[in-house]
Each structure stands twice: as structure tokens, then as C-alpha cells.
């Protein structure tokens, strides 16, 4: 399994537009390569995307991931601010730590509740959504995308493990480099891939 985080590092609308394109492109490339890509978390914005976490699995997942890791650049006059002098926009894609082993269930609290959204009587009458709380850290996640409570419990545990991995990574970085404004900083320069114009044509070579 490979876990990728797309981050705009709280960048402006143009970066969020670019991040939305990149997410769609990764999903498309993964499908073409026969790699299973699952969107685990997404923080959308009115312009596109602030951040997202993807899980890649399959024989060629390393190949797909390696094509995206690092800084990505979009060269384009701002579609939001025509008079803005800046034409270069950057986002980053980072590999999250491997998911650690979950603590035993004695350190986890499970809560069930009714799933929200549409779904008719099935959603309204069954408590299929699952919330999991890691008691030691207070970290909690909720899963309700699956129809069965068992499937949601499995997804919630996976999301909890991912959150714990992110929490651990944050602690390590803070210990090594002091307080950070964000988990990751997007480096401007030496981009892994460059896209140009409103059609996001890739610049090769």
C-alpha cells in the first residue's frame, strides 16, 4: 500500500484549482496502469482542492506514485485574478508513513450511529456508521460510506491507523525542526512535473 497526500500548503485559489486537476489525473493514470486508487480523505474548496489522501495498491503502484512525488508546477496566468503578475503555481505530493499496527481494541472505543445523507429507509433505520476513538491520543474518525456496519468499522480502523501515522510523523518533525506552520512545506523549484496553460498540457523534457 502507498499513501499519498496532495497538499497546497494553504496556497491560493490557483493552487487549489491545480490540485483538483492533479487528483483527477492521478486517478486516471492509476486506472490506466491497473492500479487501484482509493480516495481516503478530501478537503475540497470552492476553487478545487486544499488537500487529499489517496491509497494506491497493486503491482505498479510504486511506478505510478514515483511519477508524482515532489513539487508540481503549473505555469498559467491566473484564471481568478487576470491582472495578477504571478504565473507560476506550486503544490506538493508527499508519501505518508506506512500505517502502523493498530493498538489492541482495549485502547479503542467504537460508537455506532445512523449514517447521514440520502439512502432511504436503509440509512434511516440502521446504525451503519461507525466512529472510532483512539483513547490514548483522543484522535477519532468516522466512516459511513459503506452500507454495512462491518465494512464501515473496517474503513474506520484503516482511517484511524492513517491518522495515527500522520500524528506520529508530525511529532517527529516537530521534535527535529521545531514548530511548523503546516505538516509539509511545498518547495518552489525543481518540480517533478510541469503543466502549462488552462488545459494543463504537460511540459515534457
UniProtKB/TrEMBL annotation:
<dbReference type="InterPro" id="IPR000352">
    <property type="entry name" value="Pep_chain_release_fac_I"/>
</dbReference>
<dbReference type="Pfam" id="PF00472">
    <property type="entry name" value="RF-1"/>
</dbReference>
<protein>
    <submittedName>
        <fullName>Peptide chain release factor H</fullName>
    </submittedName>
</protein>
<comment type="similarity">
    <text>Belongs to the prokaryotic/mitochondrial release factor family.</text>
</comment>
<dbReference type="InterPro" id="IPR045853">
    <property type="entry name" value="Pep_chain_release_fac_I_sf"/>
</dbReference>
<dbReference type="InterPro" id="IPR017509">
    <property type="entry name" value="PrfH"/>
</dbReference>
<feature type="domain" description="Prokaryotic-type class I peptide chain release factors">
    <location>
        <begin position="114"/>
        <end position="130"/>
    </location>
</feature>
<dbReference type="InterPro" id="IPR050057">
    <property type="entry name" value="Prokaryotic/Mito_RF"/>
</dbReference>
